[in-house]
Specification:
The protein is an alpha/beta fold. Helix content is 40%, strand content 16%. The protein has a seven-stranded parallel beta sheet with strand order 3-2-1-4-5-6-7, sandwiched between helices. A six-stranded parallel beta sheet has the order 10-9-8-11-12-13, sandwiched between helices.
């Protein structure tokens, strides 16, 4: 089967799907809607995947570009002659694919497109309904996203739900935690306690909440350390929070790290922290769990599907920096329990987040869509 994989940008999630598709008998063509500046994925396309040159994919896609991009997409469809289009997120790549009139169409939600973006305006709500009504199958990664799709009129039999999962061999526990900070605190007596944040520095991910909470907690416990990977539009705000808090020496900001190096950061950390305000199944959370790292996450539906309080970690009220600081200090006090929580997190990942196992449901969605058209 000839599959046109049409996505917004090139991310680790895209690489995961494309690498898996490269191992099937399908002939897969990759089409990129836009390039948003910062390179999100450092690995090249799998060699079996054919990138399609076209008028898009070179810069940010704006609303005024839609007629040109739609014409370009229709030209791509004529040249590639796909048997199926796999497209997402819902209001961008999948919407253009729906407008093209091509079927069968498998749309894939990226979580925030349905949980957050779909409610931005009447235009977004219309685009969401239009895309779903013209999709032969919809892929979602968690129950909150599935529920949103149902609210927007997607028939339940057309929804294929599975957590995307992670590579359990690549993200795995270490026998000993590698040191990224000096493991001794400044007074030379207390072993440091390291928190890890891997989410982008954008408002939706609540990284400012993490920064404010860490300042509060670190002023009380100097052995606390924070690693914040990545970057984004809130860089200035984060630096200001840390500078005013006077705890810069307790914070490590390595920037964007490669997928190859990423497991080392999970293994070097005592606690993974995420303050995301809206999420489906967070791949970063699954990576942390697979690495045997206990998790402290915001109390939102996507996180509650994975973290049971006092088992794999804890929840804190969304957006509450004071509560997060209190939870960090409580985790520090309970550090003798973290090893067992890490083992519980790994067991959960093995049971539910095995990418090799979960990927099969994508192929089921393809067959569902083709049967619907026949």
């Amino acid at each position: 089967m000839r599959v046109l994989y049409f996505t917004r940008d090139y991310t680790p999630h895209d690489y995961r799907f494309l690498a898996a598709l490269a191992g099937t008998d399908h002939r897969v063509f990759y089409l990129r809607l836009e390039r948003r500046g910062q390179q999100l994925e450092d690995r090249s396309l799998p060699s079996q995947i054919e990138q399609v040159p076209w008028s898009g994919g070179r810069a940010r896609a704006r609303l005024r570009d839609a007629p040109r991009l739609l014409a370009g997409l229709r030209n791509v469809i004529r040249n590639v002659e796909p048997d199926l289009i796999h497209a997402g997120p819902i209001q961008t790549s999948a919407f253009l694919a729906a407008l093209s009139g091509f079927r069968p169409l498998v749309s894939m939600s990226w979580g925030s497109d349905l949980l957050r973006d779909a409610g931005h305006s009447a235009a977004y709500r219309w685009a969401t309904r239009y895309t779903l009504s013209n999709s032969d199958a919809l892929i979602v990664d968690c129950d909150p996203v599935r529920q949103k799709a149902l609210e927007f009129g997607m028939p339940e039999p057309k929804i294929v739900s599975f957590p995307w999962g992670v590579d359990l061999d690549h993200f795995s526990p270490a026998n000993a935690r590698p040191a990224l900070f000096d493991r001794e605190a400044q007074d030379g007596h207390e072993r440091s306690f390291t928190l890890l944040s891997t989410r982008g520095w954008e408002p939706n991910y609540g990284v400012d909440v993490i920064a404010r909470a860490f300042v509060q907690a670190a002023r009380q416990r100097p052995e606390l350390r924070l690693i914040m990977l990545g970057g984004g539009s809130q860089a200035g705000l984060l630096h200001e929070i840390f500078t005013r808090g006077g705890i810069q020496e307790q914070v490590l900001l390595p920037g964007q790290v490669s997928q190859e190096d990423l497991p080392r950061y999970y293994r070097a950390s005592d606690l993974y922290v995420s303050a995301s305000h809206s999420d489906g199944t967070s791949i970063s959370l699954l990576e942390a769990m697979a690495s045997g790292t206990p998790c402290l996450v915001s109390d939102i539906p996507g996180n509650r599907e994975w973290v049971e309080p006092e088992v794999q970690g804890w929840w804190f009220p969304d957006g509450d920096a004071g509560a997060l600081a209190h939870s960090v200090l409580a985790a520090l006090q309970a550090r003798d329990r973290l090893a067992e929580m890490g083992r519980a997190a790994r067991r959960t990942a093995e049971q539910r987040a095995d990418w090799d196992e979960n990927f099969r449901k994508l192929l089921q969605a393809y067959e569902m869509a083709r049967r619907a058209r026949r």
